[in-house]
Structure formats: C-alpha cells, structure tokens
C-alpha cells in the first residue's frame, strides 16, 4: 500500500534508504553558516575587542620576560633590583588581566554559540513543518532527528571553539611575527622555515578528514534512525522473534560507524604529534642560530629567551589553527546536513488570490484525478465521483488499492498528478491550505496522542474550547466514563502516544478530539477498528450524530458498518470498479457482493 500521509509514526518503509550524499562544499557551507553567525555581529565585536586587548597584553609578556633575565645580569655579579621588581609587577598584572579577559571571552562566546544554534535548530524545525509528507515517507524519522540534534550540537561546538581560536590565533601570529622581526630578523627567518611544513601537513590531513567526518555524521544518522525505528516497533520485533535480526542490523551499522569514526580520529590524531615534531625542529633552529648570535654578542640572552617565547606564541596558534580544521570539518559536515533539509522543496504555496474556505457545504467532486507517489508509477487513475453535501460515502477495497490516498488528496497532503478536486464547486488549490484542512476532521485507525494531559489532547483541534465543551464531546464519544475512572480524570498525564492507555481508549480520545472540533467534512479511516464490539455499538450512535448534515468519507473493512452509506465506492488497483448503495451493489453480483458474503461467511463460522 502507498504511504499514508496521515501520521502513523512509521513512515514509508519501502522507500527508506540512505539519503543522497551531496559532495562536501566547504566554502559554500561556511559562507552560509556565516549568515547565522553574522546576526551576532554586535556581541562578536565585543568578543573581538576583548581578544584584541588580551592578545596585546600577552604579546608584552615575552618581552618583559627577556627584560627580567637581562635585569639579573646587567654586568658581572650585578642585579638591577628596581627593574626586576617593576618587570615582575608588570608580568603579574598581565597574567591577571589575561585570566579576566579569557573568562569574559568564554562567557560571551558560550551565549553566542547557543543563540546561533538555537536559530539554526528553529529554522530546521520550522522547515520540517513546511515539508510535504512525502519527505517523511522517504526518510527515516530517526535520521531526521539526528540532523536536528546531533548535527546542530556539532555546529555549536564548532562555533564556540573555532571563532575564538581563529581570532586569537590570527592576532597572535601577526603580533608575534612583528615582535620577532623587531628583536631579530635572522632568528625570525629560522623560525619561519617550519611554516610550509605546517601548511602541507594541515592540507593533507584536512583533505582526508573532511570526507571522513561527513561519512561519520551520516552513519550516526542512520544508526539513530534504526534505534528510533526499533524502539518504536519493539512489540512487533518481539512478536516475530526478530531480536537477533535487529541486533545484527544494529551491530552492522555500529561497526560501520566505528570504522569510519576510527579512521577520522586516526587521521585527525596525526596532526598534533607531527606538529610537535615540526615545532621541535623550529625551536632547535632558533636555539642554534640564537646561540651563534649570542656568542658573537649580536643579541643578549634575554633577547633569546623573549624570542623563544614569541616563537612559541607564533607556532602554537599555527598548530591550533591546523588542528581547528578537524573540529571545523566535523561542524561543517553537520551544518551541511542541516542545510540539506533546509534546501528541500516545501509544500506548494497557496496560489495568489487564494480564498478562505469558510463554513463549506461539503460537496466534493473528483474530476479525472490521477496520482502517483513516484513518477511513472500511478496509484490512482482517472478517479471521478461526486459526493453531495451532507452525504456519507464509503470507500472499500483490498489493501493497497488507493483508498487512503483518495482522502489524502482531498486535504492536499499530496499534490495531484492530473485532474482536479473541487469542494463546493471550486478547485481546492484555490483555497488556502490552512482553511481547507481546518474544514476536515480525521480519525485514523492508528491514532496519535501527544505527551500531555487528556484535556490538552482533546483540545488539540480547538484550543479555545471550554471544559464544558470538552466533557460534552467526551460523553458523545463514550469516553467520559473511562476518563472519570482515571486517578486525575481529565488532567491525567499521558505518556508518549498515550502508551498508558489501551488502544481502544486512545481511539475514543481521537474521536472525542474530532467531535470537539466540529468539522464540516469527516474522514473516518477504520475509526472503530480498534474498539471492541460493545464499545463500537455505543460509538456508532455518536458517529451517526456527528455525521448528520456533514459530508463524511468512511474507509472501512467491516462492510456491515457501512450498509447505511449513501454511496459505496469499490476501489481496486487505483480505479473505481463499482459504485452505488449497498443494495445496488449486492444486486450487481460483483466485487462488493463477493467481499460482503465472504465476511458474512467468516462471521458465521466464527
């Protein structure tokens, strides 16, 4: 059967597979992420100012360290105590200022990172509300959730770490280079010999880790999807003894994640040890050249000490920036996966000049409607029928015939491939989508209840409803009795999808929710299939009351529940093969008659 647009929480299993992997676009993703970062430019300016002041303070520290060494040896056996005390006071002050400014930078950046990711997460969640249901039919729910949680968290980590390191490192590199040139151009040349090696190392490693971190995020998303699917369907897994099978599937996915994650960490782990080797080579070169210059009395020991500190300040940011690319690659891989969702096509917008559908009479016309979930694979072919206002139309047929698809098209959960659907003589595409869907009330076979109280779930379709209206609707649906027996009655807190209620009780609440909304057109998709026979007899009276004067479409397998329908359509292989009242179809001796007598025979045998 084609995927049902009406929420079931499971998606379209046949179409679930790995998402299409787009080639990584480092520059494009970084530029796009900057549009979110740029919204914090005011606070980023404050952070930049703090970093600049902090960097300038730290740039003075090596210079004064050298002065302190020279102060202890101005001449043979002499110490310049006055200069030494002054230098030590300056150094203590510089370190105190560094501590305060570092704290303020971290505090501001933490807030900036969280606000940026909040905007990104909000944008993605808003996007999910605007995507067509076909997107959720073809993507594992857990994989989508992984993008919303894991990938945005990676972006947060990247922003909080990378921006400050980038700014601090850039200032430190420039400032240290200037100070080294001032102290000794020759020593500076010796120090710069290692820079090309750092660049080549960073380029080689990041080229590998870019692909690996993207693959790691993808595998994590697939594994999250498998976990969500397995936990949601745990009852089915146990019922069919599939525990070992899903364990093996999880193990295979976990092994793939471990393999690609290990490769990513190994390659990124190459960075620091090799950088350490390169740094030691640079320090050795500085020490060698510095020693030669000191022997020739071209520089003092204090200058060499200052220069070693500056060279460390120069090389360390290079190392951090090179290593930062690993963090940046992981964050950008997550951002790219989020942007892939943001770039998905949304539901077709309302046409210009669309009107509100207010108090519709409920006449529904299908005019040569065709539809397919995939191009070239039609599910419905030239469906044409007319349901007069206030009539009850039953839709029956084998599983996968296209019954639910017909009602999905009425509510524009999917867009038509051909033909048109009209309500009250007007194409539904000429109505605003919101007002169109508000005119429908839908009760599913597998209903969904949200975490919250019973009262909040009933009020879901009519937020302004009073408690008296809620109770009245519950009584009509025969739900008031079991609600009153609960400890907190209407304030009873439901677990996810009403897991602390029976299937029948959940269905009664779903019917109550629709009764409260008082829609103009009803869709009952196996609405009483999960309710016992005794309860069904009671609920049928309530359904008959709410169906009076309302256009109703009933999808049913129990044919005895639709005998009073004004029209019955038999759907098979995407086409209407029979249509008429119950008595008319029985006389035709066709598909419906055969279905009806088969059920009747089964009931007698039971």
Could you give a short account of the major beta sheet? 6 strands, mixed
Averaging pLDDT over every residue, what do you get? 76
Radius of gyration over all CA atoms, rounded: 35 Å
Task: Name the shape in a single word.
Answer: elongated
Number of strands: 12
- Overall structural class, as computed from helix and strand content, comes to alpha/beta
Q: Compute the separation of the termini in Å.
A: 28 Å
Low-confidence stretches: 1-23
The helicity comes to 55-70%
Number of helices: 20
Task: Report strand %.
Answer: 5-15%
Taking strands numbered 1, 2, ... along the chain, how are they ordered across the largest sheet?
6-9-10-3-11-12
Walk me through this protein's architecture.
The protein has helices at 26-37, 41-71, 81-130, 133-137, 141-183, 185-192, 195-232, 234-239, 243-269, 271-295, 301-342, 403-410, 433-438, 454-458, 467-476, 480-484, 503-517, 533-547, 582-588, 591-605; strands spanning 364-371, 380-387, 392-396, 418-423, 426-427, 440-443, 452-453, 493-494, 521-525, 551-555, 567-572, 575-580. β9 (521-525), α18 (533-547) and β10 form a beta-alpha-beta unit. It is elongated and about 120 Å long. The protein is 62% helix and 10% strand. It has a 6-stranded mixed sheet with strand order 6-9-10-3-11-12, sandwiched between helices. The protein has 20 helices and 12 strands. It has 606 residues and is α/β, with parallel strands linked by helices.
Short account of what is shown:
The protein has 606 residues and is an alpha/beta fold.
Please give the structural blueprint.
Layout: H1 26-37, H2 41-71, H3 81-130, H4 133-137, H5 141-183, H6 185-192, H7 195-232, H8 234-239, H9 243-269, H10 271-295, H11 301-342, E1 364-371, E2 380-387, E3 392-396, H12 403-410, E4 418-423, E5 426-427, H13 433-438, E6 440-443, E7 452-453, H14 454-458, H15 467-476, H16 480-484, E8 493-494, H17 503-517, E9 521-525, H18 533-547, E10 551-555, E11 567-572, E12 575-580, H19 582-588, H20 591-605
Parallel strand pairs: 3-10, 3-11, 6-9, 9-10
Antiparallel strand pairs: 1-2, 1-4, 4-5, 7-8, 11-12
Helix pairs in contact: 1-11, 2-3, 2-5, 2-11, 3-5, 3-11, 5-6, 5-7, 5-11, 6-10, 7-9, 7-10, 7-11, 10-11, 15-17, 19-20
